[in-house]
Every structure is written in structure tokens, then in C-alpha cells.
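Support request from a user on the community tier.

User writes: "When I paste my C-alpha cells into the form, the page sometimes reloads and wipes my input. The last time it worked, I copied everything first. Here is what I submitted, just in case something in the input itself triggers the reload:"
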């Protein structure tokens, strides 16, 4: 978990979407599932914050895609940047770590859906490798 550094900003490549996080961020989960690979072109590296701590400051290009009955994905319609993963009924919002203006204090805590990873790369040792999507890494509440 990242220490509170004050509000953190982030956004898409073109600036049409900006957000602010006013609370701690969970460490990064690297998801290697087929949907994340297709959405990002590699794998999704996402932190997360309590929903109450995330504010969309500039929503001009923000669009949502219902990628499954369990989740939707937020992206910028102008530049195509992947921004969010929003799991139905979860108390947090996942945020693409590369969209943060300041990622100090974050580290990759686990790799999930490693059974689905692309054949063209290897996942380095040193962090947990989980075949499916079940992991236990709480999103900080305060």
C-alpha cells in the first residue's frame, strides 16, 4: 500500500479525462487475463482506491465499456487510453497505474491470471503468481 502523499492526479494521454485520488492506493496487481491483454495490448497493471476517494475532475472523454456481466472498463474515447476497471459491487475502483501522474510508493504485489498470459513473455519471479483471479490484497480504506 502506498503511503498518503496527498491527493494524486492522473489522466489519459490527451488530457480529456483527469481524476484525483484523495486517499491511499493499493499496491499494483498485474492482470494477465485475455480481456486485460486485449484492452491494453500487454497486461493490465492496476492499483485501486476506495470509491469515495476517487473523483473524476475532467470527464470529457470518459466512456465505459461493459466487458462482462461482472465488470466495465473506463477509457478515453479521444485517445483510447485505458483508465479504469470497475468490478460490479466492489467498494473500490481499479486504476491503470500508468495513468497516475505520481506513482511513488507503489510496487507490483501480485500477478493474476498467469495461466492466461501471452506466450511471448515471461513473468519475473519475486512476486506471487496466481493462476486465476482470486487474490487477497485489501484496498486501504483510510
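"...and here is what came back when it finally went through:"
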Amino acid at each position: 500500500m502506498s503511503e498518503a502523499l496527498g491527493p494524486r492526479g492522473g489522466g489519459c494521454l490527451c488530457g480529456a479525462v483527469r481524476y484525483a485520488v484523495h486517499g491511499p492506493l493499493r499496491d499494483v496487481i498485474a492482470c494477465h487475463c485475455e480481456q486485460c491483454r486485449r484492452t491494453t495490448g500487454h497486461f493490465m497493471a492496476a492499483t485501486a482506491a476506495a470509491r469515495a476517494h476517487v473523483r473524476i475532475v475532467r470527464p470529457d472523454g470518459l466512456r465505459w465499456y461493459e466487458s462482462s456481466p461482472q465488470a466495465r472498463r473506463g477509457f478515453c474515447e479521444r485517445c483510447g487510453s485505458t483508465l479504469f476497471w470497475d468490478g460490479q459491487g466492489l467498494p473500490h475502483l481499479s486504476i491503470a497505474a500508468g495513468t497516475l501522474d505520481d506513482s511513488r510508493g507503489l510496487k507490483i504485489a501480485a500477478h493474476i491470471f498467469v495461466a492466461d498470459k501471452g506466450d511471448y513473455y515471461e513473468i519475473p519471479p519475486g512476486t506471487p503468481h496466481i493462476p486465476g483471479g482470486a487474490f487477497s490484497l485489501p484496498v486501504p480504506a483510510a
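Agent notes: The reload is a front-end session timeout and is unrelated to the input. The chain has a mean pLDDT of 91. DSSP finds one helix and eleven strands in the chain. Escalated to web team.
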